[in-house]
Amino acid sequence: MNYKKVLSVIAVCTLIAYIVFALIVVVEVVEDRLLQNRKCLRDDLEKFDTNNVTELIFPRSTFMPQRDEIACFVMTTVDHKWARSAIRRTWGKSIKPIFIMNFTESLVNKAIKDEAILFNDMIVINGSISTDNEHLFAMKYFAEYFKISEYFLYVHDDVFINTKNLFNFLNDEILTNVVLGNFGSIPHKSKIISLMSNYLNFPFDSYLNRPDLSAYAAPGSIIKEIFNKLKRVSTSNSNQCTLDLLLKRNFYASKKFLTSRSFIYHPCIVRNNVLVNRLSPSEILDLWYYTSNANACNIF
User: Under which main EC class is this enzyme filed (predicted)?
Assistant: First the structure.
């Protein structure tokens, strides 16, 4: 009898040891990845130089949204034509999508140029731009091309937004405060809905809800004001912050970043948790002044 108890104790201890070992391995892997990501961010900041970047605007004339439209900048790629088609087909006339494509000129083929000229809604960045500076370039275009837009919205092309719910969200949350959210998709597990998703040509690959895949909506006047300050701050020094890093790290760490709510933006298939920042425009500018200080960027 005692022999069986001893074996049971040994088995339990062995199991606990395996679990502890597995946890240690997981922690080490996560730490390694975090360290690598931080190193990449530092490298991106050091390499970032807007002087080495040119833009291909299609067509060359200025494209403007109407006064009642929301300017929405959408990061896309050459092979995501299906996503651009779905956005043009489903977003309606209330949202003015402007697609930003980050490729060298040699990779922008004739089909892309024809598509851009046909729909008058694409900007091609000709140069190697880090994903950590996408917000910066989207803000640059917003400040230069959209003089009358009330809001600024930035997403990726595989985020699908239900127009009615988007306007309800903006009306509820953006009247006096800036909205800062993480738009990401979590696919439904149902096989039937999965098949339906493929049939409807909607993307089923998901983003995870995490700060480094952030997107946000904000009053255009604040975006322009912050962008004008950003232009006067060198981004080539790794001790200074790009606006993108400011948004991703400092806002997500803010104790005022409290509200979490479910926001349906993809019809019937996925849901998204949108975090709402309760900072006022003046508080955002105060935070910007602080983080743009050369010695204040301690977010890594």
Answer: transferase
For residue range 82-134, list pLDDT tens digits in order: 778 877 776 666 677 788 876 655 566 777 778 877 888 888 776 555 554 56
| Strand bridging mode 151-156 / 215-219 | antiparallel
The residues spanned by each domain of the chain are 1-47, 48-291
Q: CATH code for 48-291?
A: 3.90.550
The model's pTM is 0.54
Q: Output Rg (C-alpha) for the chain, integer angstroms.
A: 22
Read off the tokens for 13: 């201890």
Residue pair 253/183 in contact (Cβ under 8 Å)? The answer is no
CA angle (259 as vertex; 87, 222 as ends), nearest 5: 65
Helix (H, G, I), strand (E, B) or coil at 243: helix
H-only helix segments in the chain: 2-47, 81-90, 110-119, 134-145, 163-173, 191-199, 220-230, 243-245, 252-253, 281-291
Q: Which long-range contacts (CB under 8 A, 24 or more apart) does 246-250 make?
A: 246/287, 246/288, 246/291, 246/292, 247/135, 247/180, 247/214, 247/216, 248/132, 248/211, 248/212, 248/214, 249/211, 249/299, 250/287, 250/291, 250/299
Whether the CB-CB separation of 66 and 42 falls below 8 Å is answered with no
Tens of pLDDT, residue by residue over 167-210, are: 555 555 444 444 444 343 333 333 344 433 333 333 323 333 33
**CA gap 176, 172 in Å, rounded:** 10
C-alpha pair distances (Å), 156 with each of 21, 80, 187, 264: 38, 11, 16, 16
